[in-house]
Amino acid sequence: QVQLVESGGGLVQAGGSLRLSCAASGRRFSINAMGWYRQAPGKQRELVATITIGARTNYADSVKGRFTISRDNAKNTLYLQMNSLKPEDTAVYYCNAIEVIVGVQYAYWGQGTQVTVSS
User: Fold this and answer.
1) 87 in Cβ contact with 11 (< 8 Å)
2) Burial profile 66-75: b = 16 or more Cβ within 10 angstroms, e = fewer
3) Closest-CA residue to 26 (of 104, 106, 93)
4) Radius of gyration (Cα) for the chain, nearest Å?
5) What is the Cα–Cα distance from 78 to 25, expressed in whole angstroms?
6) Quick one: 8 exposed, middle or buried, by C-beta within 10 A (0-12, 13-18, 19+)?
7) Which residues make Cβ contacts (< 8 Å) with residue 80, sequence separation at least 6?
8) What pLDDT does 28 receive?
């Protein structure tokens, strides 16, 4: 089992910045990849960014050049630096971890943190 706890959300004006953190605990050694997803009201959850154990990153087109995902393996923490925020970035942001055990994938989610960008 892997437990994920997000923090760092809040209210910010358009053009501002926020940094989200996700602390992982539990069976961390088998985590293969981690990522950030978001869900706006009335919309489906969507991928924001992912990072593999080899530090390979992937971003949604809507956040490329503005958001940066990173992980500190020593601290078991995942980050999302969000710059040049737009009102359309408003959503609940969720941390995700993929664990692979004997070829079987397990997905874990945090409880989410609200990000609100005012215009």
Assistant:
1) no
2) ebbbebeeee
3) 106
4) 14
5) 12
6) middle
7) 19, 20, 22, 36, 48, 49, 67, 68, 69, 93
8) 66
Per residue in 39-60, pLDDT tens? 999 999 999 999 998 899 999 9
Nearest to 35 by CA among 51, 57, 18, 22: 51
Q: Which two tokens stand for residue 51?
A: 């990072």
DSSP secondary structure string for all residues of the chain: -EEEEEE--EEEETT--EEEEEEEEESGGGEEEEEEEEE-TTS--EEEEEEETT--EEE-TTTTTTEEEEEETTTTEEEEEE-S--GGG-EEEEEEEEEEETTEEEEEE---EEEEEE-
